[in-house]
Amino acid sequence: MINGSFGSGKTSASQKLQQLIPNSMIYDPEEIGYMLRKIIAEDIYFEEERTDDFQDIELWRILVVQTAQELMNRYKKHLIVPMTIYKSENFNYILNGFRSIDRDTVHFCLIASEETIKKRIEKRGDKFDVWYQKQTNAGVNSFRDIKFQEHIDTENKDTEEVTKIILRKISKINM
Predict the structure, then answer these.
(1) What is the rounded CA–CA span in Å between residue 48 and residue 6?
(2) Whole-prediction pTM
């Protein structure tokens, strides 16, 4: 599980890790959110789910865990899961759900300053608009919490360095 703010390096690290970890695949829970937005009409959402964040849809977190279970059962692959998830209830539910599926589940949280994240988001062609600012600010502040460890500071690290850190840590676990 590779957590962190948008622009922290999750996708790049995940893609590199997938090349280096045999029998692995990337599972991006955002796709579950996009699917739910397509199939659930706005008037069906519960009041607390009517936000600009699909992670506020309770069914999202349930399906994230159930889909991970089905992917592992069917394809027998290691899942590399990049996601930005800083809301405690969702984080705890998903991490505990993943650990019930695979006791060797590891969580990493990639962190960087808001300034660095802004530069990275703009470098990839996205506009650092109000939505990104709100999400980045909430994530940067939340991810400092001890529950989001293992922290990996990506401020001055390239993807290669980040993936080496992750590989070292998971190789110690799987010994």
Answers:
(1) 23
(2) 0.91
